[in-house]
Amino acid sequence: MAKRSTFREYLEALIIAGIFLGFTNTFVVKTFFIPSASMEDTLLVGDHLFVNRFIYGPAKSAAERGLLPLRTVNRGDVVIFRSPERPRVDMVKRCVGLPGDEIEVVDKDLYLNGKWVDDSAYTWHSDDRIFPDRPTVPEQARMRDNFGPYTVPEGHYFCFGDNRDQSYDSRFWGPVPAHFIKGRAFMIYWSFGGETSDGVWRGWAHKLQQLANTAVGFVRRSRWSRTFHLIR
Question: 225: domain CATH number?
Answer without folding.
Answer: 2.10.109.10
